[in-house]
Amino acid sequence: MDWETEATEIRQQRGLGDYQPLQPFVAQRTLERSLWYEGQLLVMYASAEEVGHSCCVWEGNCPEGMGPPPHIHLYEHEIFFIIEGHLKAWVEGTAFDVPKDSMVFLPAGRTHWFVSAAPVTRIFSFTVSAGKELPSTNAQMKLFQAFSRPAEAMTLPPPPDPSERPSREVIMKLSQEIGFAMPQLERAGWRRAFGAEGDERRE
Q1: N or C: which end of the chain has fewer CB within 10 A?
Q2: Would you tell me which CATH number, out of the four given (2.60.120.10, 1.10.3720.10, 3.10.20.30, 2.60.370.10), belongs to the domain 29-197?
Q3: What is the pTM of this model?
């Protein structure tokens, strides 16, 4: 059976003759795919051209009390599955408790934030384009790279140094380019680990 020829014929029959499928691949949990990002260990499994900008797949290892400022993914839904640990998440002030072996769906266009509620929370993250009417960018990797450096070991890095963080202007410019927004950053500067009403809990 020539599976490739058969699939090509089926695409043509269904009006998809111009579509060129992507190549399959296996991504392993390796140091080469890992970043030290804001006190966390990230493993980037899939992003950008290799998945046609249709999604971004990564693993986060987040220490207790750590989490991002309130932010909005304008073009992508974000899905977290908790492999280990415990996550507290908020979507526009509504709290969600996300223990181990649970999933939380964070819709595109809604302000959300989260914090690790365990010594280390291990998150499997999947973002996917929210609709045909929206751009397919899935460029989270660009934001991660601006705040990170290549991991030196498959462990948590030292605590983040605020002096090494990109300037507000760089963050805002990059956010606009990738369809990301951080409204709290505009109001109060960089903060993390917000509570239910979006109030600051720690730097």
Answers
A1: N
A2: 2.60.120.10
A3: 0.89
